[in-house]
C-alpha cells in the first residue's frame, strides 16, 4: 500500500527558514515579439538536449473574455529562460516539434494546456507539479508553498491576478513570470522522488498521461445554469430571465473581449430575474443596475428581460436540465433510499481510504463518477462490471483497482436484504 507523506513532513518540519529567490539566477530573454527571433529560439530548443522543459502561461481571465495566453514562459537547462509574447507573434506553432522532444513540466497543467494548445503547442509527455503534490498528500500545493516546502526556497509572488493583456508589461511582472519556471524542473525531480518513495509513481504516471490524452473540453450545453445564485431561482420564468440576460451579457462580453462579470455581475442577473422589471425606471432602481456603466446598457438589459417575460410557457427552460445525471445527493433519500445508503457507505469508505493513503478523495476518484455508478449500478454488481463502469466514466486503472472493492461493498450495503 502506498505510504503517506509523513517522512517528507518530518523533513520539512525541521527545515531552516526558506531562502528568498527574488530574481532568476540567470538573465532571461524577451519578451520575444519578432517571429524571426521566435524561429531562432525554436532552433535552439530543437538542438541540444531533450531534457525536461519548464512551461508556464499567463492569462487575463479576470479581465478578458478570451482565455488566450498573453505570455508564455519556457526554460530548459541548456537553453535558459525565454518569455514569449503570443499577441504580436500570432502563434507559437514553430515551437511544437522542438518542444515535443522534451517532457513538459507545468504547475496546474489543466489551467494552461488549453491556451497553449490554442497557441499551437501541445505536450507529448508531461509532469504536473501541483497534481504530484496532491497525490503525495501535501497540505498546500500552490507553486509558492510547494517550492518552499520541498525546495526550501521562497518565490517572489504577487502578480498572478494581474491584467496580463496590458502592454507594456512591467519589469516586475516579467521577473515574476520568469521565476515561475525557474525551479520547476528541480521541483519535478524532488516530487518524483517523493512519489516513488510513497509507492505512488505509477498513479502519477497514469494521471499525467491522462492529461496529455484528454480531448479538448466540450462546451457546456447550458452554461447559463452556472450563474452564481441560481439556487434561489425556483420557477421556469425566472430561469428564462437568467438565460436571456446571461446570453445577452455573453455576447456583449465576447464582442468587447471583457470578462463577463465586468460587463454585468451575476448578482445583477439574479436580482433582475427576481424582480422582473418591466420599465427602465424599475430596472435602474435595482442597486446593481444603478451605476453609470449599467445605466448605459439599460435598454439592452431590459430588452433581454422583456424577451423572457414574453416567452410562451412551452419555451421556458425546465427547472433542472435534462441529462445531468443523478439528482443532488441531498435528494437521494427521498428519491431512492437504497441509493442513499450506498452513497453514505461509499463516502465513509473513500474518506477512510483517503486518510490511509494520504491522497485527497477527489484525486482517488472523481466524486461525480462514484455518484453516477452508485445511482445506476451495473445489474450484475460484479467487480468486473463495476470496474468497467468506473473506467467508462474516466477512472484510470490505478483508481479502478483502489475504488472497485469500495463501490462493490457500498452496493452490498444498499441491497434490499442488507
Automatic annotation (TrEMBL):
Gene Ontology biological process terms from the UniProt entry: nucleobase-containing compound metabolic process
Record-linked SMART domains: 35EXOc, HRDC
InterPro entries to which the protein is assigned, alphabetical: 3'-5'_exonuclease_dom, Exo_C, HRDC-like_sf, HRDC_dom, HRDC_dom_sf, RNase_D-like, RNaseH-like_sf, RNaseH_sf
Gene3D superfamilies: HRDC domain, Ribonuclease H-like superfamily/Ribonuclease H
Signal peptide region: none
Residue span of region Disordered: 1-26, 313-334
Domain HRDC positions: 235-315
Stored SUPFAM superfamilies: HRDC-like (SSF47819), Ribonuclease H-like (SSF53098)
Pfam families hit by this protein: DNA_pol_A_exo1, DNA_pol_A_exoN, HRDC
GO MF, one example: nucleotide binding
PANTHER family found in the cross-reference section: RIBONUCLEASE D
Protein's recorded name: Ribonuclease D
Lineage: Bacteria, Bacillati, Actinomycetota, Actinomycetes, Nakamurellales
